[in-house]
Amino acid sequence: MKKECVAMLLAGGEGKRLGALTKNLAKPAVHFGGKYRIIDFTLSNCTNSGIHTVGVLTQYSPLVLNKHIGIGKPWDLDRQKDGVTILSPYTAKKGGSWYSGTADAIYQNIHFIDQYSPEYVLVISGDHIYQMNYNSLLNHHKENGADATISVMEVPLEDASRFGILNTTEDLRIYEFEEKPKEPKNNLASMGIYIFSWTTLRKYLLEDAELMHSSHDFGKDVIPAMLEDNLRLYAYRFEGYWKDVGTVQSYWEANMDLLEEDLTLSLNNKSWRTYSHDSNFPPQFTSEAAVVTQSLINSGCWICGTVKNSILFDNVTVHEGSSINQSILHPGVIINENVVLNRVIVMENTIIPANTHIYSNENGEPLVIDKNNIATILAEQGQLKGASK
């Protein structure tokens, strides 16, 4: 069945810099924003943009991610003839291997794309927080008669060396692409969101696969090869909120951003919904003694303490006398009596003992707490003896 555009969603990221958050979990499956997982934003963008043929390329610790995606029902991607398809590395008669780069991941799934004979392929990542109409990107690509179009946004110049930096003419035609340059010439950064004309991309993927010295990456190999051949590559300026939650600090910041009233990323936007599974817990309960300000509180929560500038996922309990500030509590967390948490992230089903005070690291980076490290953290902070269950 022919499709105009097929989306290939790269969701195999290990996310090493997220530490305990991704110890046994693919980065796109990490909890975010009170009721979502990170990948929900990209999948919702596909649905809202009318792109219903989506291949999700998984690799690292995919169990929870695969279960979360399932048949794609929350995003209206549970379709018989297209919808969402999980694409994991596999072995065929000619052999097989793990995905060795972003371009290699697409190359290994050429057969999936070919069955739809698309004119265009959208390559996106499952570990960014943003809301984008991919049709605007596709129309920009068509209007310029481009071979490839890269979505870009301006970043602080001091951060530019962390990104792929594009140099363009006034009409946004790209003439140079530098992957994480030490001395960037400008701050126009690639968001890792690409539209390719499929026949062109297919040719370059096949050629790149034969190069032994290639890292098989879009930013390092395929895009520079296209520029060297003087193909028509254009930049598309994105105006809106976008965050790569690649570190514990950026993950915490992105969650806290949701508490800003003037944030362009709105979870209440009825015309651009962010979809996910519904936990079906009962409504949250807030006791007479509770104090809740500037926070997101999900269903099933039982609040008897103080919660300020924090995000609580479903089924979280905060007992009386406890104070939660600038923190993120994942599903099923239990905060016992007289606990103080400040700038911490508590992972799923962790129990915080009564009478403990836990703060962020000395450098201000949020502290990640899980069932396996809670005792160590309390011991390091000299509180283990005074803690009780």
What does this structure look like?
The chain has 389 residues and is of the alpha/beta class. The strands form 7 sheets. Strands 5-4-1-6-11-8-12 form a 7-stranded mixed sheet. A hairpin with a 5-residue loop joins β9 and β10. The protein is elongated, with a radius of gyration of 22 Å.
How much strand content do the residues show?
25-35%
Give the helix proportion (percent range): 10-25%
Unreliable segments (pLDDT under 50, ≥5 consecutive)? 385-389
Shape annotation: elongated
What's the total count of β strands? Answer: 28
Number of H/I helices? 9
Largest sheet: 7 strands, mixed
* Structural class category: alpha/beta
The spatial strand order of the largest sheet comes to 5-4-1-6-11-8-12
Distance between the termini: 58 Å
Average pLDDT works out at 91
Radius of gyration: 22 Å
Concise synopsis of the structure shown:
This protein has 389 residues and is of the alpha/beta class. Helix content is 20%, strand content 26%. The chain has helices at residues 39-48, 63-69, 102-107, 110-114, 134-143, 198-209, 218-228, 248-257, 374-380; strands spanning 5-10, 31-32, 36-37, 53-57, 83-87, 120-125, 128-130, 148-154, 164-168, 174-179, 188-197, 233-237, 242-244, 285-286, 291-293, 296-297, 302-303, 306-308, 311-312, 317-318, 323-325, 328-329, 334-335, 340-342, 344-346, 351-352, 357-359, 367-369.
